């Protein structure tokens, strides 16, 4: 019986999330004016173009600018830790997929912070007048990855 591959075999998934995230953001920047254009797709979902200088849910967005470098550094440290964990882990596909999704999303948002000084968000989910904070493909990868890690933790060892 062969030994399971290193979790690094899942880095292609992180690269895919990063590529989809950056391609979708480039499309949004090319077609939608920031804070002006809204493209309704359904009765609960729009495409928009907003800038987030903060963290999730625009946390710290009202700060004078220190948060940009803090979040870049935090994401780079997290990325290094994730790659190290993936290098060491064997098997555990759900765990590795979760880490790869988080890695791709974290790097996608870091690219925005480095290039633009903010993260480009464009997915707007709403119900009536209530809108969830806009998000992007990177945020989706991070969220799905975190859910997979929680599920993996509850599964335990067989």
Automatic annotation (TrEMBL):
Return the GO cellular component terms, semicolon-separated: plasma membrane
Q: How would you describe this protein's topology in the membrane?
A: Multi-pass membrane protein
Keyword annotations from UniProtKB, A to Z: Aspartyl protease, Cell membrane, Hydrolase, Lipoprotein, Membrane, Protease, Signal, Transmembrane, Transmembrane helix
Coiled coil regions, renumbered to chain = none
**Which GO BP annotation is one of this protein's?**
proteolysis
Look up keyword Lipoprotein and say if it applies: yes
- How far does the signal peptide extend, from start to end residue? 1-19
* Annotated pathway: Protein modification; lipoprotein biosynthesis (signal peptide cleavage)
UniProt keyword annotation of Metal-binding present: no
Report the locations given in the UniProt record.
Cell membrane
Q: Which residues cross the membrane?
A: 69-86, 93-111, 131-154
User: Mainly resides where?
Assistant: membrane
According to its UniProt record, which residues of this chain constitute the active site?
Answer: 121, 139
Top-level lineage group: Bacteria
Q: Name one GO molecular function term.
A: aspartic-type endopeptidase activity
Quickly give the catalysed reaction.
Answer: Release of signal peptides from bacterial membrane prolipoproteins. Hydrolyzes -Xaa-Yaa-Zaa-|-(S,diacylglyceryl)Cys-, in which Xaa is hydrophobic (preferably Leu), and Yaa (Ala or Ser) and Zaa (Gly or Ala) have small, neutral side chains
Q: What is its EC number?
A: 3.4.23.36
Q: What does this protein do?
A: This protein specifically catalyzes the removal of signal peptides from prolipoproteins.
Membership in a protein family: Belongs to the peptidase A8 family.
Q: What name appears for this protein in its UniProt entry?
A: Lipoprotein signal peptidase
**Gene source species:** Parasulfuritortus cantonensis
Q: Which gene encodes it?
A: lspA
